[in-house]
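Render Aminopeptidase N in 3D.
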Amino acid sequence: MADTATPNVIRRADYAPPAFLIDTVALEFDLVPERTIVKNTMRVRRNPDASHATQLALMGEQLEFVSAEIDGKPFANVHAHEHGLLLDHVPDDFELTLTSVCNPAENTTLSGLYVSGGNFFTQCEAEGFRRITYFLDRPDVMATYTVTLRADKADYPVLLSNGNLLEEGDLPDGRHFARWEDPFRKPSYLFALVAGKLVAVEERVKSGSGKEKLLQVWVEPHDLDKTRHAMDSLINSIRWDEERFGLELDLDRFMIVAVSDFNMGAMENKGLNIFNTKYVLANPETATDTDFANIEAVVGHEYFHNWTGNRVTCRDWFQLSLKEGLTVFRDQEFSADMAGGATDEAARATKRIEDVRVLRQMQFAEDAGPMAHPVRPESYVEINNFYTMTVYEKGSEVVRMYQTLFGRDGFRKGMDLYFQRHDGQAVTCDDFRHALADANGRDLAQFERWYSQAGTPRVSVRTRYDAAQQRYSVTLSQGYGEAASAARETQKGPLLIPFAIGLIGREGADLPLQLDGEAQASDNTTRVLEFTQTEQTFTFVNVAQEPLPSLLRNFSAPVIVEYDYSADQLAFLLAHDNDPFNRWEAGQRLATRELLTLAARAATGVPLQLDDSVVAAFARVLTDETLSPAFRELALMLPSEAYLAEQMPESNPAAVHAARQFVRKRLANALKSDWLKVVEQHRTPGAYEATPEASGHRALKNLALSYLAELDDPAETVRLAAAQYDAANNMTDRAAALSALLSSAAANGGGADAQRALDDFYRRFEKEPLVIDKWFALQAVQRGSAQRPVIDVVRKLMAHPAFNLKNPNRARSLIFSFCAANPAQFHAEDGSGYAFWAEQVIALDAINPQVAARLARSLELWRRFTPTLRDGMRAALEKVAAQVKSRDVREIVEKALA
């Protein structure tokens, strides 16, 4: 399990093509949990584009070597070692047959072939295939696969693999077999098999060209009633990809399989997607609106990989964002189109706001820490550590900038050329950039820097209005400020930044935009400026009045904008900006500014006061019926404590928590009647619907309930929340009511109603693992108090019969929720949270290094905290560094301490 070898740094500059290529693979599996025999027959040839090698080196881990044959004859020049096989003096072109054994029952890493709930599953990305058989386990070795599965029929009645089913039948001794063929060349990381007691919901659909396709969602029998939404999401994804990008499903069937033990969200194996149950199973009683939305997005994401990742894949793992950043962009556009189509900008903006919130809270923090790296990293020790927010979310923003520059039609032209050139190939981020450039007749050499520079760019804005000449000048300057060392080290010059801007007049309307040198004003009141220099001035002419700039509309680039708006100007933008994203952004800036001022006072013990103008700004949004409920919910949600702490010169979670709770309580009491009215007006009676409109009403109502939980007199809130909990016909309302009861108990003491609801929640759903995950998470993120610190609750829950550290979902629900989503309690000055973190990282490292490494990142920004907290975090990091053995965790903690 543990890898104690000295970590080797893998560098992008050292890439060399493989010395050998594998054209075909025929795999035979005799599936037995403790001893699975794998026979692997490959057609191998020397790569004419690589230097000559005297040995064929194959990767292999946790395997028992049995035999080797070349062209049907035993081959003795084989050396098996801990990390693979060496075969000496092999021919130039030959058939290689290897037999080996693995032990899926003992594979707690959940990488390779493993057993979960009595069923067999695989996870091969990034380097799991080498745990199944010896192979050239790298993405630029692409082959066609035929797979034969044999197993006990009673225990494993369903046998699945990639592609199309060729034949199946019975064998002696109660066994049976199935043979699958994937006609498309693929890298080994896209291989998959599943065997077990599963059932499927099926649909047959016709592709745009009229071909019939079989769609299946496979789950354990008791979960069949929770598959409809996943199937609908798959059908919608197929239709959307045909309409938006002209991409059809290329196989006769497409399968999704749900498994409860899974390290990630899902995996796009060709034709056989394996999913964490969290992103498949949903019905109104067990899944929230957020769950329904996430399932739609993740099903879409993995399906879209069929072309952006599978048909065209990565040459090497440094190009990971080639598939992941592009496919995140595609799933974001899919979700936006499902919510608002191409024309409902308010609905699309809601999705955009949600995506940017995640980027700024998580990826911007990553950019500022020791794990900062470019979208296309230059080196790594353990590739699993580079499935990061930078590769995925910032990578998506880089792709979005192409669409911002070229428009939807220009972006589609680039995508068409990309597939025309590279279908069936393993390529690079540069190949994608060249396709977009060539299709649109543009030189994008400067745009490459977005792939090679780490850190979050900062754009400083200065404006000047000449009333006599009616000229308005906007000067943009780009840099990185006090960036992390990774940003300083990778800077290669200014970026090409598409900077969207609008100008707003005194009455709140957009002004016409005409740049100096243009014959007339544009019809569009949002202009995308191509900002390419370190400092650049853009001058608008015929500006009849001094405007207020609306900057970086729709968040047109992943940058931090520095402009000194006054509080009154932000309030004006919040009320009038025509760009929905910037309207939300103005409110967030206003709230952030006020909260940081209050946090600084709280840190020094100064009494807190909230300006009435802030309350008035919130009241205008809360009562503005012209705004959609979904937008109002986002606009009225305060910035997170973690995000606020990162904006301080020294992060002080306790001070941030005090400031944020003060503002929530002030808004709750000052706007009590409005909050109560919202709760009443935005109920969704009748049968549950997971539509964007209904979800928006529930979101606003439940936000109001969460504010009411802060009231000085909690009786009315407790009554409302308890009534909502008891009457709820959906998990969204039930979980929100339980959360409000927990908050009210923490704010006002007592808590009998909260405990009653907690106990009822567990009894009601104890046979629904995903719902019990919510039960653990709600308790891990609750506010707590001096009399009842949450660490005590979490430690008690660790001993609960339903807790299982080996299950990643359960570990994330309790441990990760506490460490990553409850900063005020986790960062307690007594260091109890850090001691708990160290214990759990060390325990997980021995079981599942990938999950342990993700938990290890909770302390990577330790140097930015107050001295007392820094000391406690450093001690915890040093304890972990001295005891863990995996490459995964060592890379994280050593970079943090370096």
